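As a warm-up, study this chain.
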Amino acid sequence: MRFARAGRAVLVGAAALAAIYGVAYAVAWTRTDNSGLARSIAWGEADVDDHTRFPSRAVPASGTAYVYEKAEGYPDGLPATIAVPGGKKLGELLAASETTAFLVIKDDRLVYEHYFNGSSHDAVQTSFSVAKSFASALLGAAIADGKIGSVDDPVTRYLPELLERDPRFADIAIRHLVTMSSGLHYEEYGLPWSDDALTYYDADLRGLALRKTRVEEPPGLRFHYNNYNPLLLGMILERATGQSVAAYLSEKIWKPVGAEADASWSIDSNEHGFEKMESGVNARAIDFAKLGSLYLHRGEFNGRRILPAEWIDNSTAPALPTGLAFSSGYGRWWWTHGAESLGAYYSARGNKGQFVFVFPSKGLVVTRHGRDYGGVDWSAVAEAVASGF
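Now compare it with the structure written out below.
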């Protein structure tokens, strides 16, 4: 009898907890316009459809698109010598791995463009952290424009209010933000109050970055992936250029590269209207590929100089000496790689398997978008594709 009563108590308690959670979940859905906590409860883990949930700011194209020529002479779209890991044909692997788009561009000719799992050429793909590589390009543009002095400028030159909380912010330079070596505290895991969740869902990202950032150690000591860094840079770009980040992207990158269609950049809320700098560029796959082409050509593309070659070179090389406790595979918000047969190459990459790979030795850009990684090592796939040319 005692065990029966205990069992009933457990069931009653579980039902009560379920009811409380149900009420909290229902309330959260009514507050997703202005509450990061509500978003994390209602929306749960980030996914590629979040661009339909967040408000956004337009990134207009020029109306005159750069169109890649179609490559000829490749059966099934790619050289027959390409052998992807696992022994499958590339198309089979892509269809079975939650891929939505996969493009290969060789010497500015479109070799392979295929869409899977309900996607299409006109479909909107999202960036997640590929947005950081766009932000890196904007920093290069702002320095070339004279809006920002250099990567050695202290962040407090543009965000002096940080000094009111801690004078050690004066030691952090823009260079430390874009190399993920700022020394700021960051907790990656755990909904709904981790820094990962806050920097993704908060409805006032400017306020969050100004009040929540905390100096943990001197800058430049080690690599620590930290989404407060792009938020701080976003505010620096706003103040230095006098424009929204989305407007500056349209002016300095999107229109000059000849983007085919307008893009958007997800923002924290309609009230505050600040770009989600850590993620949230939404565009067609073909236009993501143009970021790769711009970098492949060291900043000159679509018949014009868009970014300084020196900026491209410095952004896509390891940022600090390997003797430091630092990732030797990271530049300025670009990941750096090397393969014996391919030489140095680099990539922009985002959560759920969004990639823009650039192989300078092959004149090659490979992009992949998907709903998730699909259990695939996409760097290995990209290397296999590049090795086939």
